[in-house]
Write the structure tokens for this entry.
Amino acid sequence: MNEEVEFVLDTAKEAMNGAIAHLEKELKSIRAGKATPAMLSTVMVDYYGSQTPLAQVANVNTPDARTLSIQPWEKNMLQEIEKAIQIANLGFNPMNNGDVIMINVPPLTEERRKNLAKQAKAEAEEAKVGVRNDRKEANNELKKLDISEDMLKIAESEVQKLTDTFTKLIDDKLAVKEKEILTI
């Protein structure tokens, strides 16, 4: 295959990898059966007048499967962190003991598990749409190139193979996340 076609294929693959990376990030933020620091990734703390991610002002750990522990780097940030967690409206009730903020993560109800599985499915579908858009973009770029019709058909089939591969990868990641969410 010629260089221009290879470039279009590489660009498409890179864009599809971006969709996978975005999906992985979104799936991490969806709560499963156990506590993870990623559950607090959206919490922004007022750190001396500027909104700062929680991870940049404190250590977030999971001492066990149902507890999150937040150890601020500066003790005077305890109230700010506690307030930020409540403002984030994640459904958590932070407990401040003067040194550390503890959050007990309640077990998920069956209805909540099903809703989270639906949310994961929606994220996966969004990633598939992204991959299909990348396929469309690549095919349009291929049509602009000055190549033979046979070469165009071969290149388009390569783009379709890439699309199928990434779609299967999305389905696999969704299956793993759904199993994680629905397992009690």
Summary: The chain has a mean pLDDT of 88. The chain has four helices and six strands. The longest helix spans residues 110-144. The longest strand covers residues 58-64.
